[in-house]
Amino acid sequence: MMERADFYVGMGESADWIGSISKGGSIWEIPTDIIIQVNRVMFEEMCIEYIKSKQGVVANHICQWPWDWEDSRLTSFSYIFSPEHEKVYVSIEGNDLMDPLKIVQGYSIIEANVMLGPPIFPVMIETISIEEAENGSEITSII
Q: What pLDDT is attached to residue 140?
């Protein structure tokens, strides 16, 4: 498993992508200060620092989505700060949201599940149909 990670603020299609790393993304490698964060601004700042320390990609007008897949469902770990709940959740390969702190503390996956179901992620790469590709359109484009 590659231990890639994506970081977001908010949930759903309108979530804000903060950035991504290709190594050091497992729950046991993410600094505890990030996974226990209850403040949106602090979460974003800590994530950006961590992403930079891992030579990752921070979202801005120059750096864009680094993966070949369209959203975080195929990324090893996705860390999501929920402003509504003032809490950080994690999804492993797009599965149900869990409390990462409980996992670090040794709780089982079942005990760490927060019963919110799998997250919905914003689509980061727009794909086109085969017909459009046959008519000369580009296969993918970064949003």
A: 45
What lies within 8 Å, CB to CB, of 13 at 6+ separation is 120, 121, 122, 123
Q: Distances in Å between the alpha carbon of 125 and those of 27, 82, 88?
A: 26, 23, 25
* Domain residue ranges in the chain: 5-142
Rounded Cα gap, residues 132 and 94, in angstroms: 28
Kindly report the backbone phi and psi dihedral angles of residue 48, in degrees, each rounded to the nearest multiple of 5, phi listed first: -60, -45
Distance CA 35, CA 41 (A): 14
The pLDDT-based confidence of 139 (bands split at 50, 70, 90) is very low
Phi-psi category of 86—alpha, beta or left, where left has phi over 0 and alpha has psi -120 to 50? Answer: left
Amino acid letter, residue 38: V
pLDDT at 107 exceeding the cut of 70: yes
**Cβ neighbours, 10 Å, residue 119:** 22
Amino acid code (one letter) for 88: V
Rounded (5°) CA angle 72-95-129: 45
Q: What is the pLDDT of residues 6-52, one digit of tens each?
A: 999 999 999 999 999 999 999 999 999 999 999 999 999 999 999 99
